[in-house]
């Protein structure tokens, strides 16, 4: 049977081996890989910002305030339409 001293030594060696292998990366990343990862992260952040902004704009702009058929509407005319709808 194995002695306790032998098992302690074996556990210590396994622990040290695990610590050493975790500290070193398996391989270095190339410059193009780093740039690709950076670009992907930047693309995700832009998408998240656009989604956030779209949600904020949905809260501000209601569908009834949109000008019809591409006509430019001023703030004054939009306010007048809202007041007219409230009075009805």
SSE layout and pairings?
Elements: H1 4-23, H2 31-60, H3 75-87
Attribute tags:
88 residues, PTH, mainly alpha
Structure description:
The chain is an all-alpha fold. It has helices spanning 4-23, 31-60, 75-87. The protein starts with a helix and ends with a helix.
Oligomeric form of this entry? Answer: single chain
Number of helices: 3
Q: Low-confidence parts, pLDDT < 50 over ≥5 residues?
A: none
Per DSSP, what share of the residues sits in E-state strands of 2 or more residues? under 5%
Number of strand elements: 0
Q: What value does the Rg take, in angstroms? A: 32 Å
As a percent range, the share of helical residues equals over 70%
Tell me the structural class.
Answer: mainly alpha
| Helix-strand string | HHH
First CA to last CA: what distance? 95 Å
Averaged pLDDT: 77
Largest sheet: none
Inertia-based shape? elongated
Signal peptide: 1-23
Subcellular location: Secreted
InterPro entries: PTH, PTH/PTH-rel
Protein name: Parathyroid hormone
Short summary of the structure?
The protein is an all-alpha fold and 88 residues long.
């Amino acid at each position: 049977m194995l002695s306790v001293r032998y098992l302690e030594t074996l556990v210590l060696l396994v622990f040290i081996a695990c610590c050493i292998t975790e500290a070193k990366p398996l391989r270095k990343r190339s410059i193009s890989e780093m740039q690709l990862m950076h670009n992907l992260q930047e693309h995700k952040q832009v998408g998240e910002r656009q989604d956030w902004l779209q949600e904020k704009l949905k809260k501000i702009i209601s569908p009834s305030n949109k000008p019809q058929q591409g006509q430019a509407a001023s703030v004054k005319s939009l306010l007048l339409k809202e007041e007219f709808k409230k009075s009805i």
